[in-house]
Write a structure and sequence with these properties.
The chain is α+β, with helices and mostly antiparallel strands and about 180 residues long. The protein has helices at about 15-25, 35-50, 110-120, 150-155, 165-175, and strands at about 1-5, 10-15, 60-70, 75-80, 100-105, 125-135, 140-145, 160-165, 180. Residues about 85-95 have low confidence and may be disordered.
């Protein structure tokens, strides 16, 4: 089990398969409405409090995210305490909708034809994609699932040039390039 404070409000807990077996839970069974999941969450928060030496109040409003570990072993849990807004003394709502788009440019139509097969084979690794053209080149904006960004980038770099993972460049592409798919 690895526990790390990413900032004052966010803690990451990485569980291996052995840790999950010891806690008697699987990724598929994780559901906060399940009493066993709540027991595991409270256990992990107690351990994080001990390891980090931080006062973690499990009664605070908290966002809990669980994602499979990209290495395929266990899962990663993110605990984010919702901070107070000093001006209004109300809690802010923090919502993470999707990852940054991976932007890839293709320089010929043959690569774009291959792209259809790539996207079919990797369909469970992304949430959506858009294809654009500037008349000569093609640009793909693909939104990978949070843990799949490196895998998608590596897959696409075989056929095109991965430019960046940037929402601003994605907006620029939508504005100046013509959408074809």
């Amino acid at each position: 089990m690895k526990i790390k404070a990413q900032n004052d409000y966010r803690i990451m807990v990485e569980l291996s398969d052995e840790d999950m077996t010891m806690l008697d839970i699987t990724y598929e069974e994780m559901d906060y409405s399940n009493i066993e999941t709540r027991r595991v969450i409270w256990t992990l928060l107690d351990e994080a409090r001990r390891v980090l030496g931080k006062d973690i109040n499990p009664a605070e409003k908290m966002l809990i995210e669980a994602v499979p570990n990209p290495s395929g072993d266990g899962c990663i849990l993110y605990f984010t305490v919702m901070p107070f807004d000093d001006k209004s003394s109300q809690r802010k709502l923090i919502m993470k909708k999707e990852s940054q788009p991976v932007i890839c440019t293709f320089f010929d139509a043959d690569s774009v034809v291959c792209l259809k097969k790539i996207l079919e084979n990797a369909s469970d690794s992304y949430t959506r994609y858009e294809l654009f053209s500037d008349g000569e080149n093609y640009r793909l904006l693909i939104y990978p699932k949070i843990s799949e960004t490196p895998a998608i980038s590596n897959l696409l770099c075989e056929y095109g040039e991965t430019i960046c993972e940037n929402a601003v460049e994605a907006a620029r592409t939508r504005e100046y390039w013509k959408k074809i798919l």
